[in-house]
Amino acid sequence: MEDDIIKCLGQIKEKELVELCQNLIKIPSHKDTFSREKEIALFLKDLMEREGIEVVLQEAAEGRSNVIGRLRGTGKGPNLLFNGHMDTVRSLGMKDPYGAKVKDGKIWGRGAVDMKSGLAGMTYALIAIKRTGIKLKGNLILAAVVGEENINEGTQRLIEGGCQYDTALVGEPTDLQIVIAHKGIEWIEITVKGKASHASIPKEGINAIVNAARLVCVLEEKLVPKLSQTLRSNRLVGCPTLNIGKIWGGVRNSVVPDLCKIQLDRRTLPGEKIEDVLSEIRSVIRQLENTYAEFKAEVNPIPVGPDTRKQLEEIGKQGLKILPHEPMEISRDSKIVRALSKAFKYVPGRNPEIAGMSGWTDASLLVNRAKIPTAVFGPGPVIKAHTTEEYVNIADLVDAAKVYAVTAVEVCSGRIKDS
């Protein structure tokens, strides 16, 4: 098996891998593109077919499909899933977002980090294993999915289709750290209620915007510092956070507003529940109700993803669901973590580092919904994702592809035993 791994790594050619990553970046695949992920899906399907890899399209939403590539094993070993999303955010403010230029040892463009470099590396790992002719015991599956930047309909469909995977790896950018935990997301809407009156007689009304401002101040001055206390922290992902993202209210300047809405983004730790999050915010509201007799507000969770009610209605018409964005954490003794760590033997100058991340990924759905132990590992600094200066280091891209390939061989050969 050692000889097979060495031969496989010999198939990972930097020029080819860079060209693959560039080709993926050159295909726009954000939600405002007419064909969404269709063009990049067909590109990947055609590439894998040319390499002799079994590949099918799996419809995930109307006119949009996941690409499922498979190297079949003998059926006598564990099955490994590579998961990566094809979509990106929009390219607002970027210069030449789809040029995929190489400069200073980096590939630049929208999706270079999030996550077309990871997708290129995982795809190329399958190609390298196929070209080497390694006989795996378990199946190696690549799922290039749609919609991660929206409502995760791609991985949702993957799970609904039946998950015959023993372990999984999501190729999001981690700067080549092995991520075994990340935060969850809760979106919360607070409706502050007042009483309308003419602006010339404001004392006849109750100004909902003024009361909302009081609430914002208390959240920032009392609750946010409380969340930052070390007693609330997780050893891998740190402390929970709260961001006041949107606020709106009123109808015109001459009317005392009777309604004001505030929307919050609350990042949760492994083990935190939505009931506890809501209870904490309601406690703040009760304090204000006790202080101000005319203060009234209610708190409700809202779906993560859609920005407008119209978007939410369109999602419902398509029969899609919005699943909870729960935090995730797996054991550092998990098979996938041990395989990734072992693979670093083949990338000189690097050592495996176990970490957590603040962002959210499809790994949450695989861990919490499908009950598949899943790690996150990929090239590129996540702080460059969604920015106007998005890039991936070519050296990181190559090393990621090597780690993907070795990890796949180690897992699917059955060499990594259950802990």
UniProtKB/TrEMBL annotation:
Stored Gene3D superfamilies: 3.30.70.360, Zn peptidases (3.40.630.10)
Record-annotated membrane-spanning stretches: none
Enzyme class: hydrolase
E.C. number(s) listed in UniProt: 3.5.1.18
CDD domains documented for this protein: M20_ArgE_DapE-like (cd08659)
Keyword Hydrolase: yes
Catalytic reactions on record: N-succinyl-(2S,6S)-2,6-diaminopimelate + H2O = (2S,6S)-2,6-diaminopimelate + succinate
MF term (GO), any: metal ion binding
Cofactor(s) the record lists: Zn(2+); Co(2+)
Record family assignment: Belongs to the peptidase M20A family.
Protein name (record): Probable succinyl-diaminopimelate desuccinylase
Organism, scientific name: Aerophobetes bacterium
Organism placement in taxonomy: Bacteria, Candidatus Aerophobota
